[in-house]
Amino acid sequence: MNGFFDIPSDLQSSYLGLVSTHLQEALIPVFVGFALALPIGLLCVRVRWLYPPVLWITTVLYAIPSLAFFVVLIDYTGLSRLTVMIPLTLYSLVILVPSVVDGVRSVPEETNAAAAAMGIGLVRRYVQVQLPIAVPAIIAGLRVAAASSISLVSVGALIGNQGALGNLLTTAMLYQRPALAVNSVVTTAVLAVLVDALLVLLRKLLTPWQPPSDRKVRRTAARAADAPGATRTSPTAGAARAPEHVS
Amino acid sequence: MNVLNFIESFFTNSAHWRGYDGIPQRVWEHIQYSVAALSIAAAVGLPIGLVTGHTGRGGNALAFVSAAARALPTFGLLVLMFVWLGLGVLPVMVPLVVLAIPPILITTYEAVRTVDPSPVDAARGMGMSEGKILLQVEVPAALQLILSGLRSAAIQIVSTATIAAYVSLGGVGRYIVDGLYQRNYEKVVGGATLTAVLALLVLVVFWAVGRGAVSPGVRRRRAA
Questions:
Q1: Which residue in the set A75, A185, A244 is minimally distant from B76, CB to CB?
Q2: In this predicted complex, what is the ipTM?
Q3: Where is the ABC transmembrane type-1 domain (chain B) (predicted)?
Q4: Is some CB atom of chain A closer than 8 A to the CB atom of B191?
Q5: Which residues of B touch A243 (CB under 8 A)?
Q6: Which chain B residue is nearest to residue A185, measuring alpha carbons?
Q7: What is the spatial distance between Cα A132 and Cα A129, in angstroms, rounded to a whole number?
Q8: In chain A, which residues have their Cβ closer than 8 Å to the Cβ of B167?
Q9: Does residue B188 or residue A217 have the better pLDDT?
Q10: Which of A186, A192, A179 is nearest to A151 (CA)?
Q11: pLDDT at B218 over 80
Q12: Residue A221 belongs to a domain with what CATH number?
């Protein structure tokens, strides 16, 4: 691969610079989306009738293609990083609210009752009892949000060099250098896989009570097939419930 | 000037409604590409998902496929295919189809696998063949989830087809890409509006299909 890491000077950035910009543009929206999803999730859990309309709004928001979002925002935020990061924050929010609500709702009633009996208040119960139990569902949502965010940053290249590693794609077209496009795709995919692995590691650290391997979980799930929550632990369960990423 | 003004002036300009670059032509192109890609993806994803879901095998392999597909950057794949295969519909169809298969596959697998086992056992006890069990018991019960998988695939295809205008595909994305190059913001915003409308149209179509195709009994139970 000749010129694989030979970044043209008009990008005004080194390879590692592009990687770090990409991670910032992709992951800051996920964090902000997560920070917003927690209070919204609490509200949806407390006020039951609020959840269906919220779900409906998120489905519609998620259907709007990112490019449409970007170009409409140009009028307000200009050709800046913010134009890319605002839609990504919304997408993350849309993925994370259902995973927080579903995760918290799957907390057993006895656990809630025990917490209430111990005199733990609403907010403390949410933060110290319900959220820790909901960690597997929340991490599943974070994995989808992070992967889709990392993939979508590249589209920002279309609105004037705001795509970090995606800029390599437009440059590859401009200078007829396919190696740069390969570089961009491979690097983005590797970043997505690394972040995904980190999130899986985080889940293992946060939920030491869970059986160590997925295989074992699935076997126990098969044995307890009558329990409605059992299917949740299958490796594809989260993927089927959470929306796949859009472009 | 406000975005709404741009939208209004774009859609009221009669020149935008005629010719090869007119709105009807571009929308029709977009629908054609999307339907073609969704059909191919469904033809591959549905049978595999149904069979693996019925037998309950291959979950780990499918989880791997979905994780790998999620890591692939859509836009990157699009440009890469274009750089490798050159101008044409094929380099665009490949990423559209490849990225639409995993949601269909995984959701179908998960939907069929999680069907309540007691009616399936009852059907088996009545002497129904495995094929009949799958088509007459499991598919109707799982239809709502299967449709939601097809819906996310369709939405993904519609939005990716927009970006594909960058690598010379027609469709409503043309307005956005051309408008950005021509510094014609009215065209850009008009294209963005059309894209959003098409995506919402997908939601409406799938909602209507769900209303019509899913048995009312199954729908009630899901809602409860």
A1: A185
A2: 0.78
A3: 27-206
A4: yes
A5: 152
A6: B76
A7: 6
A8: 173
A9: B188
A10: A192
A11: no
A12: 1.10.3720.10
DSSP class of residue A166?
A: G
Q: Give the burial class of A156: count Cβ atoms within 10 A of its Cβ; 0-12 exposed, 13-18 middle, 19 or more buried.
A: buried
The CATH number given to whatever domain includes residue B120 is 1.10.3720.10
Which tens digits make up the pLDDT trace of A191-208? 999 999 999 999 989 888
Contact B27, B194 (CB under 8 A): yes
pLDDT in tens, B48-70: 999 998 888 887 888 888 778 77
- CA–CA gap between residue A102 and residue A232 (Å, rounded): 11
Residues B208 and B133 sit within 8 Å (Cβ to Cβ): no
CA–CA gap between residue A147 and residue A238 (Å, rounded):
14
For all residues of chain B together, what is the average pLDDT? 85
- Kindly state whether residue A5 falls inside one of the protein's structural domains: no
CB distance from B83 to chain A under 8 Å?
yes
Q: How far apart are CA B189 and CA B6, in angstroms?
A: 7
A77 inside domain:
yes
Q: Is there a contact between B114 and A231 if contact means CB atoms under 8 Å apart?
A: yes
pLDDT of residue B37: 93
What phi and psi values does residue A7 have, to the nearest 5 degrees?
Answer: -80, 125
**Could you tell me how many residues make up chain A?**
247
pLDDT tens digits along A27-84: 999 999 999 999 998 888 888 888 888 888 888 888 888 888 888 888 788 778 888 8
B32 CB-contact burial (10 Å; exposed 0-12 / middle 13-18 / buried 19+): middle
B45 interfaces chain A, CB cutoff of 8 Å? no
Interatomic CA distance for residues A236 and A221, integer angstroms = 13
Residue range(s) defining the domain that contains residue B154 = 3-223
Question: Which pTM value belongs to this model?
Answer: 0.81
Domain range holding A51?
Answer: 11-241
Question: B21: which DSSP letter?
Answer: T
Amino acid at position A6, single letter: D
